[in-house]
Amino acid sequence: MKTMKISRFWIFFITVLIVYGIGEFLIATGRIDSFYENLMITIAINIILAVSLHLVIGITGQLSIGHAGFFAIGAYFAAIFTMNMGLPFPVALILAGIVSAIAGFIVGMPSLRLRGDYLAIATLGFAEIIRIIFLNWEYVGGASGMTVTKMTTWQYSFIFLLITIIVIANFTNSRHGRACISIREDEIAADSMGINTTYYKVLAFVIGSLFAGIAGGLYSHNFYFLQPVNFGVLKSFDILIYVVLGGLGSMSGAIISATLLTLVSTYFQNFPEIRMVLYSLVLIIIMLYRPQGLMGSKEITDLFRRKKSVKGGPHYENIGT
Amino acid sequence: MKTSGLKPLLQVNQLGIQFGGLKAVSEFNLQINKGELIGLIGPNGAGKTTVFNMLTGVYEPTEGDILFEGKKIHGLPPYKITRRGISRTFQNIRLFAELSVLDNVRIGYHTIAKNSLLSSIFRLPAHFSNEKEMRDKAIEFLKIFNLEHLKDETAKNLPYGMQRRLEIARALAAGPKLLLLDEPAAGMNPKETAELMDLIAFIREEFDLTILLIEHDMKLVMGICERISVLDHGLLIAEGSPEEIRNHPKVIEAYLGEEVGENHA
């Protein structure tokens, strides 16, 4: 069993190295121009957003559709930290994540008592409040926006993407993650098993907001200009669509759909007039043929696990320490 | 009352709850000593499940108090009551339907494992030792319940009787001193019911349990309960041994209506 676990770890490690190596090689040797580098950064940002929302919706089962609010908080605060306070970029990113997590805690505490539709409306309202605050806050330029130096690189995006995936995957595959899943499955039963459901709902929400905030920081430093208009309701729905389309409860699904949809959306920029029509068409077609999402509730690793599970089961078992 | 003289495990005094203008349960008294197996019966809508919901913190009683091991537990949230040592099953099975049999039981161990959030995120040794312990314990547990060969099966795919069994296993995994079973035999055929009676007797010995159960199957209730309380319209109408309950005029009246001969049951 031990060898199996180690090999899984190495497979992950090698995959990461290859992806990073390819990206690094293409950029360093000038084989791709800044347009494609930007695309890679955008994909990384969207994956972070999708995976962080996946934790809230797919794992904990709390329908939050105000994720763009936390994204906005991260974007603006990271910009404030670098531009107005002169902090180094990575520090600003982490601080922006923390500010966003605090906002997540403040919003989550009262609103996670609500269920289903009510929670969705509350979070949607919150995201609008955030956007309007930034719209009227002269310190960050109000409606006319704020100038930000470009600092986001492919390396930063990749590292923070990696951290997001590892933290959320490790969280999910632990007793804490199982507690969150049990809330999704049946909150009353979870309660009766001794699980503090409020704690875990707020915790998932806070972790989700933390990474959305970091994604915001990466986003705001990827362009030269930051405006509240980028953080409207539609942005929230974009992120929601990544999660739903990937398959609720599947992290690999969220990653795949965020990647695909970002690519599709970028490609359709060649047809600006009918871009949104085509994009919507793609969504409709996927939902017609895969109503359970691209991956359903499976992870990509499950596809290789089927045979092994007879003797082994999940990879974190049987590790002597 | 074989353990009379000892402090009762659960003491319920004048318990009542009101939903708006409706008094669902009032002046309910119950005393359970350690090791007893008590039945709670009554016609449909009598308030039995409401009593369970108050005991487990799902509803907060509007009157009276509940003492568990001499300490007040009414007003605590459900998860804290579970941690004090009361766990339950549900009338309409509430398994974690999309999870495996193993994971259902493993979640029961949630409160026993102590590793912190950070140890899981950073995969520190505490995480692995806890996960291993939880998994080993859960598998041992499934062996006791003859469910081990199904550990990777999704809970919702199990046959009905096994789902009931799994729900009991899950409740026991939380390490209760008092187990509340809400209609464990509902929907079971006579053979399954007989197996269930054996199982209840077995876990009671094995885990040193005290059990309170709601049940409509009189054969089961009369067969295994040492004392029975009868609720009707939210009021306690009788209490006593199965023999006393069988012949109690008020009980017969509640079940069969008025004007029934005294010796029928």
UniProtKB/TrEMBL annotation, chain B:
Domain ABC transporter: 10-258
One Pfam family in the UniProt entry: ABC_tran
SMART domains linked to this entry: AAA
MF terms in GO: ATP binding
Taxonomic superkingdom: Bacteria
Keyword terms of this UniProt record: ATP-binding, Nucleotide-binding, Transport
PANTHER family, alphabetized: AMINO ACID ABC TRANSPORTER ATP-BINDING PROTEIN, CONSERVED COMPONENT OF ABC TRANSPORTER FOR NATURAL AMINO ACIDS-RELATED
Name listed for the protein in its UniProt record: ABC transporter ATP-binding protein
Species assigned in the record: Pallidibacillus pasinlerensis
